[in-house]
Design goal:
By secondary structure, this protein is an alpha/beta fold. The longest helix is centred in the middle third of the chain and has 27 residues, at 156-182. The chain folds into two domains: 5-327 and 379-429, no CATH class; 341-369, no CATH class. The chain contains 14 helices and 20 strands. Helices cover 34% and strands 22% of the residues. Bound molecules: zinc ion. Zinc ion is lined by residues 137, 249, 399.
Length: 477
């Protein structure tokens, strides 16, 4: 076990259990990102060779697209604040580029993100490895495409509105990426870390018991309470953008009013604190984490404020400059289902009363009737981006549980960000532990997402981790 002064100094800013766990590892790839002292100048005004461009677009629906998630009909009744899609374009001194999209969407499906990636490639020449489309998983955001398609009662007018809105968002996302790229200008990057504790492991703590458990200090289960922060500062000192993350479901609210849930309130507060700055949120593997207690606007505002405060605290401390250099890698992993459903099985399920499961079965039977086939695996997207020697971004599709963030941060060391909810909603993405335990995130619930199966194969964490390691190696050479 070794602790270099530079590593200890950075860890002084990240006293979470995760940071300490990562520090206890030595050697391996972790060293690549944590041991090398940086010569970049984040806030000194000295040019580091980075360029950055930031753009944003309002995505609040103008028509009555239902709110997404929770498996019911949710027509909107107004808004608390606008919903946003935001883009951060980066370019290093060799002309390597990447664009990160963050958004207040609940779930971006493949049929929406694929056209965005194709058009961005055609218009701006960016390959798939250079763009990541993340969504906060905000449950006060709108339905999109075929995301959770069987969750909702089928009404023809609504299907049309969802389709129309999704197409508009594809156009808007592509235009926003172009806008961010057109604004590339010298910038300095730096990272830090805050902490806030409102995320609760929802698998291990009964929601009704949570207030009492908090009072008694008896909450259990794994969490990741760290708040990674990346600043983008212009050479004149202007804070252009703040990217921050947290591992927790934006499910504080379940009413019918547009807002960004806790990440929305946090972004609004940070932008108010820093006029002219764009605040961007990424959900860092909060698949099994809930903001508890919940269901009140005051609680949502409180959690947003707690998160914004954690970001502000991180900004007050010395930040670690990110030296220039950008490498990106991307791969699709075919994640196998444990068993692909058969027509016979579906016919039985389709007999059930109205609800998600019979809707799912009937839709899949129609697909077979039309000559369609069911796949036995799903194309799962994985990204690795290296920013300088100091920062590693791992991006994963689906609702990744917190084990992924804890594992990869431990394996690759400080400066590692693990973003779930990237490119494609898919379903939950359980770790091996969660798969073995079963339950909502690990068990037989893939039908809820429209997949032709109930469960993933036991090997999914192993397959994802193998690919992550290959990609990290690729961007580290
Ligand atoms: Zn979820």
């Amino acid at each position: 076990m070794t602790h270099s002064p530079s590593r200890r100094r950075f860890l002084g800013q990240s006293l979470s259990a995760v940071g300490l766990a990562a520090a206890s590892l030595s050697g391996g790839l972790g060293g690549l990102f944590s041991l090398a002292p940086s010569t970049a100048a984040a806030d000194s005004g000295k040019a580091t060779g980075w360029k950055a461009g930031v753009a944003k677009a309002v995505i609040t629906p103008e028509k009555a697209v239902w709110l997404a998630g929770y498996g019911s009909k949710r027509p909107p009744d107004g808004k608390i604040h606008d919903l946003w899609m935001k883009a951060l374009a980066l370019e290093d001194d060799k002309g390597n580029k990447a664009v990160l999209i963050t958004s207040d969407f609940q779930g971006v499906p493949k049929i929406m993100s694929d056209p965005v990636f194709e058009q961005v490639k055609a218009k701006f020449g960016l390959e798939r490895k250079q763009i990541m489309f993340t969504f906060s998983h905000n449950h006060c955001g709108p339905r999109l495409g075929d995301d959770l398609i069987d969750y909702y009662p089928v009404e023809e007018d609504q299907e049309k509105l969802v389709e129309e809105y999704t197409q508009e968002m594809i156009v808007k996302a592509v235009a926003m990426v172009g806008d961010a790229l057109s604004k590339l200008a010298p910038a300095n990057l730096a990272q830090g870390q805050g902490k806030t504790t409102f995320a609760v492991n929802r698998r291990d703590n009964r929601e009704a018991d949570v207030p009492k458990l908090i009072e008694e200090g008896k909450l259990v289960g794994v969490t990741d309470h760290s708040v990674p922060v990346l600043t983008v500062t212009r050479p004149d000192g202007k804070l252009e953008a703040v990217l921050f993350g947290y591992a927790c479901h934006p499910t504080t609210l379940s009413f019918l009013t547009w807002c960004g849930d806790y990440p929305g309130f946090a972004q609004v507060e940070i932008e108010k604190n820093h006029p002219g700055t764009t605040a961007m949120f990424v959900n860092t593997c909060g698949g099994d984490q809930n903001p508890l207690p919940r269901r009140k606007v005051e609680l949502c505002e409180k959690y947003g404020h707690m998160l914004a405060t954690a970001v502000e605290e991180a900004l007050k401390k010395p930040l670690q400059p990110i030296s220039v250099g950008l490498k990106t890698a991307f791969a699709i992993v075919d994640l196998p289902y444990l068993h692909t459903v058969t027509r016979e099985e579906l016919v039985e399920v389709a007999k059930g009363p109205e609800g998600i499961r019979p809707r799912w079965a009937r839709r899949l039977i129609k697909k077979l009737d039309a000559g369609g086939k069911f796949e036995t695996a799903y194309p799962y997207p994985v990204h690795a981006w290296r920013l300088g020697k100091e920062m590693l971004v791992i991006g994963q599709g689906a609702e990744t549980v917190v084990d992924y963030a804890l594992r990869f941060k431990s394996e690759f060391g400080p400066g590692t960000w693990v973003m779930g909810y990237a490119d494609d909603m898919i379903s939950y993405s359980p770790s091996k532990r969660v798969w073995l335990e079963g339950g909502y995130e690990g068990g037989s619930n893939l039908f809820e997402y429209g997949r032709p199966a109930y469960r993933w194969h036991e090997s999914v964490e192993e397959l994802i981790a193998k690919t992550v390691h290959q990609l990290v190696k690729e961007v580290s050479e």
